[in-house]
Write a structure and sequence with these properties.
Layout (H helix, E strand, L loop, with lengths): L1 E6 L8 E8 L6 E9 L6 H13 L11 E5 L4 H10 L4 E7 L5 E3 L2 E5 H13 L3 E3 L6 H10 E5 L6 E5 L5 H15 L2
């Protein structure tokens, strides 16, 4: 099964798209990162949605006649992108990313703390269950984002924030969305 995930951005952040293949018969929860890309800054959301539709329809990403699962960051402008993708009847999971502590499922939506996304990615990556080929054009950028991704604890509120320090985190969040859905939803 394939999972396509998109972390949306436009003017300051890139829209990042990852394609993970879940490995059957190897170990449960093993993923191969098949594609990882950043769309150019300023890419219109209509072009992002068309790119996702084309990927979803790709015969190479059909597994046993099933289309890939499409996951988007439905936070903020993601709601408008979600409307377009749902109108095309794509197999969509919209994840609303928040800073809280609990996963909330309501009315076909899933609200996930950013920390849960990051921890799922970290567990899969450090456990050797996320296989990343060095052949990807964005491989080096992905590793740099992972290295600059930091947890900060606010001493007053005791709340943790997860962000790339001085760098983008779009590739990390795209892959984290896919891994989280593979681990907790599918």
């Amino acid at each position: 099964m394939f999972i396509i995930a998109c972390d949306l951005g436009k003017s300051k952040d890139f829209s990042a798209v990852s394609v993970l293949e879940t490995q059957r018969g190897v170990k449960p929860g093993t993923y191969s990162l098949r594609s990882l890309q950043r769309l150019p800054l300023g890419t219109a959301y209509t072009n992002v949605t068309e790119h996702l539709r084309t990927l979803t329809a790709s015969p190479a990403l059909q597994a046993d006649g099933r289309p890939p699962v499409l996951v988007i960051d439905g936070t903020g402008v993601g709601a408008a992108v979600e409307d377009i993708l749902r109108a095309w009847r794509l197999p969509l999971i919209s994840v609303k990313i928040h800073g809280g502590n609990n996963v909330i499922r309501k009315r076909g939506e899933i609200h996930v703390p950013k920390k849960d996304l990051v921890l799922s990615l970290q567990a899969a990556f450090s456990g050797g269950r996320l296989l990343v080929s060095r052949e990807h054009l964005e491989h080096q950028a992905f590793l740099q984002e992972l290295q600059s991704f930091k947890v900060k604890i606010n001493p007053r509120t005791r709340r943790a924030t997860f962000n790339g320090e001085g760098a983008h985190d779009d590739l990390v969040l795209s892959v984290a969305l896919a891994v989280y859905i593979g681990e907790h939803v599918l």
